[in-house]
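[Automated response] Your request has been received and processed.

Submitted sequence:
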Amino acid sequence: MRKILFITVLFFTLGSVAVKADNDKLITKEKLPAAAQKFVTNHFAALKISYVKEERDLFERNYEVVFTDGSKVEFLRNGDWKEIDCRYSEVPSVVVPDQIKKYVSENYPDAKILQIDRDRHDYEVKLSNRLELTFDRNYNIIDIDD
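Generated structure:
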């Protein structure tokens, strides 16, 4: 009987932790990390912010800034950008690593970078010609999808 009671309490406890783990809330731009605030001000000053969201999971915290034109930027807890998605315009050139810009301009001179996503292992880039390029952390091309 004690085992059944213990297991029941354990499941309810884990269930309540799981519900609390996915805690998204709207915040103001001023509550973003300083690096994220500066990034938005420097690279997206001409765009109007639709909303800013703090996304909390069990072990991490991320931020998302969505603009009225549909563009969005996701930031890590420390304010570094994780993903930039400019649906109808080009990703600001200064945030794209030079090696990636060079590869795109040499191989796809008419294409624009509409989205860039980075993580520990690679960079993923979506172009206006619908190609998706993946680069390793040393900026070597490792995959091309159409």
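Summary generated for your ticket: The domain at 90-146 is CATH 3.40.1420.30 (Inhibitor of vertebrate lysozyme, Ivy). The helical segments are 2-21, 34-43, 98-107.
If you did not submit this request, please reply to this message.
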